[in-house]
Design brief:
Layout: H1 2-32, H2 39-66, H3 75-101, H4 105-128
Length: about 140
């Protein structure tokens, strides 16, 4: 069960990365071409946030099955990885909420693009800090 969850958690990150890149691209496109806000943008932000939620749930399930993050060494990484990922999730939810409540389309698209870039940076930092630098490996 533990290896299944680890593979699911490691594999799902690609869906998260793809969702974030789509959100960044769509946000930049809408912002730079001065598009009116549309339902597609709302759905992209919603899917991106849900994908990150699922990633966190897989990580928590991995923690419960293993009864700790002891496989993450050194000890500082045991604290850093989960903390940075929870911060990324929180930021994704804040960005999603602010984008939904925005009134000016250009500002919504700008926040969609720049906010998801910030989320991506946090996630990449959280992954790169793992032993073995698992950003591009499984």
């Amino acid at each position: 069960m533990s290896s299944f969850l680890l593979n699911a958690h490691s594999g799902w990150r690609w869906i998260v990365m793809l969702a974030i890149l789509v959100a960044v691209g769509y946000g930049l496109w809408g912002w730079l071409t001065k598009q009116s806000w549309n339902d597609t943008a709302r759905k992209i932000m919603l899917f991106t946030t849900i994908a990150i939620d699922i990633q966190l749930l897989l990580g928590l399930a991995l923690y419960v099955v293993n009864k700790s993050w002891s496989q993450l060494n050194p000890a500082t990484v045991r604290f850093e990885h989960p903390t940075v990922m929870v911060l990324a999730l929180g930021l994704a939810h804040v960005v999603n909420t602010k984008v939904k409540r925005g009134e000016i389309p250009a500002a919504r698209y700008r926040l969609m693009a720049l906010g998801t870039i910030a989320v991506l940076v946090l996630i990449v930092v959280g992954i790169v800090r793992l032993p073995g630098n698992r950003l591009f490996g499984m």
